[in-house]
């Protein structure tokens, strides 16, 4: 007999230990020496696979797990040679061998496994030769894209672990940059997230949390900086370019609307700040949300105050001068007196330019030093040219013909004043865009009541640690995530989920930071604190989504990067055209036209068009209980025409109950339920839970079982009290040659009631049918009708029987039903719809939904679903209502429409404004557009874009939550 010690994972209590002990006691020639929550020691003289299967079937992990990269295997015979050697060993439970990788579980040590492979004539690639990489993918919009990239990466030196539209995980001897180059060659983009060594032990992070986690997209360590000095889209491009030059930066998103930069990678914040400052801009880091928010508010208030002051000074000088000219005053230098008086005005205007307008000139000089042009460059050139021309006329009027001795000091002052006033109004409107995020931050209380030695002590939130017992009084906000240990009350969770009805909380239920206790007092145990709370994760997710860019934004960035230099060229060409071909005085027409082109073409509106809409749209989604991973998902969601709905837990409550039964032998109802529940104990399937719960309600004792096996999408089998049992669907019975012909009428009757019939066979003979019903959600019918009214094709996709599925579908008015689908078939159905030209949104909540969620154009996970489903989706609904799906799609369409409106307005403004400024209407009207009017129009365009984006804050779904 061999003595073996194995590690255990996911074993949380002695109840779990006892379940494992009972299961192993049924295995032949296996004896437990010692067992606790961390490890198991046994003596045995048989292969380990039965033990691994028995423990795994209970939902726990046991033993060691290795993924060793291989080299030297050239064909299937090499693989078979290793497989044969592993089969002969009792210390190996399971294995999967390919030419690139050995995936092995058992009690064997890594060194012994390596030696075994080497003795067979092959090599185990060391960690220095091969690595595991994870990448974030962009540009993949459907299953065809995934298939195309898979084909490109199918090489001998690359082992693909996982691949979907958003993520790629490989084990390879290539470098990360070489993998990125391969992805780029396929027409997509990849960003390296992590690099790790192959796993050699069961990972403790595989232990599931007691409740699903909402996690932000994993793209390495995220750093957020507050920026200053940004004025337009070309500034954004310059800052992003500067940050990308820093070693360790994987990706960066600069948000012009919020003046922030979100950087992913391992680079130090100080190195990034230095790079930004060297590029001519300012940056600073705030560690926590409160200080970041306070600093942003201070910056914005100071910006508005400074701009308003400078605008009033500039307009105070410019308006009287312009009024003088409008009401008949002479602005021509025709005498010594006028020369002296306008010279004094020129010096006063110069003082204005170097005070109220100094930022334009300082920023344009910085841009010039870094070989770039920005909005400030255009303003500085325009106002500077007008002042210099005017001073030249004042100093040497005889050098100009009489008609050309006009001064334009009022133009310089008015342009500075109007543009600065526009910046002030824009900053004031922009401050409203992050109200949703600020409201989320406000939900976090700053103190908590800690119970210590029977005493209630109020402590700062920073002093609360996991495991502390906290008291929640009526009307108070929950300070941290935790679970109730005493008391019951109703908690208002609307601020997180968008669900208006308070939720009843009792012992064992989870409470989340930021929610409000309505009545009653609760004692709860702190579980997640600080940045680990769901509220903190939601805030981070919203912030990252607001900083992301859809494809439309990338198009606008590309245009903006070449826009300012192009405008300068157009201004020069305009000046030359007027000088050589325009009427006299040519110098005056040349100056006015060139200056007006420079002023009117500032790309502020173009740079603000997309980030303003995204920031407001993502924030509004958070208020409605919809979490969005990135702006690209919103653009995809706006074009969805087909919504695929999982049934269990999505259309239904996800809490099935036993509602009917039929018996075909001598068993009683209690015995039928007792046997089925004994077989299903330990299973996590919703139908299994319903059977076990029914047994508990009837206080039926459950038998221990052995030889348990689960068959995905079919059923389970095992031995109880020396009886071989099979529990599952029709396919499972037919595969095991169980005669069910005499039960078909009962099966059909149960299915016709909307329940799911499950067969139980005893020793090869049908013993009975158990009918399990999962009631529809109250709002499923109205939500489905609402989506259909939106013009969406609604499809129900389920692994349930065809008859049951059609009954449920009929109740909901769904005509397109795909039933009796195995878990791996759900993704295939998504691909089939995509091949028909459909743009698909998949809605689900289970592990078996994850591949389909990842494959669809848009994956929408119910917030109460599993971590895997939530990670695979682009949208997560915090409230468990299908109306959230319709809300998400409506809001996505509204946001994309708003972005297009902003971009259209910005493009049309510049497309029409530049030719008019250049003088195309002069032959018809005989006048040129004034630089002053151009400055006002430029400021107005930015204000219009910001105001239009803020309309999204007023977005309301087509059906209110109260109607649901």
Structure description:
The radius of gyration is 35 Å and the shape is elongated. The relative contact order is 0.08. Helices cover 46% and strands 22% of the residues. Helix 13 packs parallel to helix 33 and helix 19 packs antiparallel against helix 31. It has a 7-stranded mixed beta sheet with strand order 26-38-37-36-27-34-35, sandwiched between helices. Strands 18-17-19-25-20-23 form a 6-stranded antiparallel beta sheet, with no helix packed on it. The C terminus is likely disordered. With 964 residues, the protein is α+β, with helices and mostly antiparallel strands. Helix 27 links the parallel strand 34 and strand 35.
Q: What's the main sheet like?
A: 7 strands, mixed
Structural class: alpha+beta
Oligomer: single chain
Mean pLDDT: 79
How many helices?
A: 33
Q: What is the β-strand count?
A: 38
Distance between the termini: 64 Å
Helix content: 40-55%
State the shape.
Answer: elongated
| Rg (C-alpha, Å) | 35 Å
Question: What share of residues are in beta strands?
Answer: 15-25%
The largest beta-sheet arranges its strands as: 26-38-37-36-27-34-35
Regions with little confidence, pLDDT below 50 for 5+ residues = 195-220, 865-870, 960-964
Short characterization:
The protein is an alpha+beta fold and about 950 residues long. The protein contains 33 helices and 38 strands.
Provide the descriptors you would attach to this structure in a database record:
22% strand, alpha+beta, six-stranded antiparallel β-sheet, single chain, 46% helix, disordered C terminus, 33 helices, seven-stranded mixed β-sheet, 964 residues
């Amino acid at each position: 007999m061999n003595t073996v010690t194995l590690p255990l994972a996911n074993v949380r209590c002695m109840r779990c230990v006892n379940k494992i002990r009972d299961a192993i006691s049924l295995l032949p020639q296996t004896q437990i020496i010692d067992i606790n929550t961390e490890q198991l020691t046994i003596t045995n003289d048989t292969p380990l696979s039965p033990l691994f299967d028995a423990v795994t079937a209970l939902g726990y992990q046991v033993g060691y797990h290795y993924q060793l990269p291989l080299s030297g295997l050239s064909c299937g015979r090499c693989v078979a040679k290793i497989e044969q050697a592993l089969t002969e060993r009792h210390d190996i439970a399971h294995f999967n061998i390919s030419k690139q990788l050995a995936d092995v579980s058992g009690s064997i040590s890594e060194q012994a496994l390596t030696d075994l492979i080497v003795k067979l004539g092959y090599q185990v690639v060391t960690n220095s030769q091969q690595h595991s990489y994870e990448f974030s993918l962009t540009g993949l919009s459907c299953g065809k894209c995934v298939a195309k990239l898979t084909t490109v990466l199918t090489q001998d030196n690359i082992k693909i672990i996982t691949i979907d539209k958003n993520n790629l995980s490989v084990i390879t001897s290539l470098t990360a940059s070489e993998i990125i180059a391969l992805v780029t060659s396929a027409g997509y983009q990849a960003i390296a997230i992590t690099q790790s060594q192959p796993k050699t032990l069961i990972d403790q992070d595989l232990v599931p949390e007691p409740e699903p986690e909402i996690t932000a997209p994993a793209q390495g360590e995220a750093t957020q900086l507050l920026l200053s000095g940004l004025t337009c889209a070309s500034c954004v491009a310059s800052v992003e370019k500067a940050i990308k030059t820093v070693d360790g930066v994987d990706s960066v998103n600069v948000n012009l609307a919020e003046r922030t930069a979100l950087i992913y990678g391992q680079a130090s914040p100080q190195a990034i700040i230095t790079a930004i400052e060297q590029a001519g801009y300012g940056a600073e880091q705030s560690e926590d949300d409160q200080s970041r928010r306070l600093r942003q508010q201070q910056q914005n208030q100071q910006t508005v105050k400074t701009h308003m002051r400078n605008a009033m000074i500039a307009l105070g000088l410019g308006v009287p001068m312009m009024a003088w000219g409008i009401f008949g005053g002479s602005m021509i230098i025709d005498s010594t007196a006028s020369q002296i008086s306008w010279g004094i005005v020129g010096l006063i205007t110069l003082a204005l330019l170097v005070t109220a307008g100094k930022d334009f000139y300082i920023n344009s000089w910085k841009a010039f030093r870094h070989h770039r042009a920005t909005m400030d460059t255009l303003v500085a050139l325009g106002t500077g040219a007008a002042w210099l021309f005017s001073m030249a006329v004042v100093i040497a009027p005889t050098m100009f013909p009489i008609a050309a001795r006009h001064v334009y000091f009022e133009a310089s002052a008015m342009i500075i004043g109007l543009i600065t006033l526009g910046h002030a109004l824009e900053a004031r409107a922009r401050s409203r865009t992050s109200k949703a995020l600020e409201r989320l931050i406000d939900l976090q209380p700053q103190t908590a009541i800690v119970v210590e030695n029977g005493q209630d002590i109020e402590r700062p939130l920073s002093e609360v640690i996991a495991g502390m017992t906290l008291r929640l009084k009526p009307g108070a906000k929950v300070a941290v995530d935790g679970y109730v240990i005493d008391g019951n009350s109703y908690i208002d969770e609307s601020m997180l989920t968008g669900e208006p009805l308070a939720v009843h909380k009792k012992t064992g239920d989870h409470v989340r930071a930021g929610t409000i206790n309505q009545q009653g007092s609760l004692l709860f145990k702190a579980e997640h604190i600080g940045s680990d709370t769901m509220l903190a994760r939601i805030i981070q997710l919203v912030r990252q989504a607001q900083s992301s860019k859809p494809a439309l934004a990338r198009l606008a960035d590309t245009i903006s990067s070449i826009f300012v230099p192009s405008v300068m060229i157009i201004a020069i060409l305009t000046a030359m055209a007027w000088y050589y071909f325009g009427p006299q005085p040519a110098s005056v027409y040349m100056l006015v036209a060139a200056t007006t082109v420079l002023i009117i073409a500032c790309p502020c509106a173009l740079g603000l068009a997309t980030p303003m809409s995204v920031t407001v749209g993502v924030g509004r989604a958070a208020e409605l209980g919809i979490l969005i991973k990135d702006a690209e998902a919103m653009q995809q969601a706006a074009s969805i025409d087909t919504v695929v709905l999982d049934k269990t837990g999505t259309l239904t409550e996800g809490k099935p109950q036993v509602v009917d039964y039929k018996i075909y032998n001598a068993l009683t109802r209690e015995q039928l339920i007792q046997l089925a529940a004994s077989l299903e104990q330990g299973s996590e399937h919703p139908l299994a839970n319903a059977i076990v719960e029914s047994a508990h309600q009837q206080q039926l004792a459950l038998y221990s079982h052995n030889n348990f096996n689960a068959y995905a999408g079919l059923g389970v089998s095992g031995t109880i009290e020396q009886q071989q049992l099979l529990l599952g669907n029709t396919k499972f019975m037919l595969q095991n040659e169980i005669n069910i012909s005499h039960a078909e009428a009962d099966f059909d009757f149960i299915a016709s009631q909307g329940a799911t019939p499950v067969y139980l066979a005893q020793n090869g003979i049908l013993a009975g049918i158990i009918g399990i019903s999962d009631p529809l959600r109250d709002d499923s019918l109205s939500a489905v009708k609402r989506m259909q009214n939106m013009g969406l094709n609604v499809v129900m996709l389920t692994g349930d029987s065809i008859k049951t599925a059609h009954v449920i579908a009929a109740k909901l008015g769904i005509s397109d039903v795909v039933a009796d689908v195995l878990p791996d078939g759900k993704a295939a159905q998504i691909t089939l719809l995509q091949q028909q030209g459909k743009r698909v949104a998949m809605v689900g909540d289970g592990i078996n939904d994850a591949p389909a969620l990842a494959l669809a154009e848009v994956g929408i996970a119910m917030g109460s679903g599993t971590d895997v489903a939530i990670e695979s989706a682009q949208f997560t609904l915090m409230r468990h209502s299908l109306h959230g799906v319709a809300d998400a799609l409506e809001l996505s369409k509204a946001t994309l429409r708003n972005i297009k409106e902003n971009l259209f307005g910005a493009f049309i403004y510049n497309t029409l404004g530049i030719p008019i400024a250049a003088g195309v209407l002069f032959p018809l009207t005989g006048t040129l557009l004034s630089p002053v009017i151009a400055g006002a129009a430029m400021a107005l365009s930015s204000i219009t874009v910001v105001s239009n984006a803020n309309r999204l804050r007023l977005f309301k779904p087509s059906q209110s939550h109260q109607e649901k």
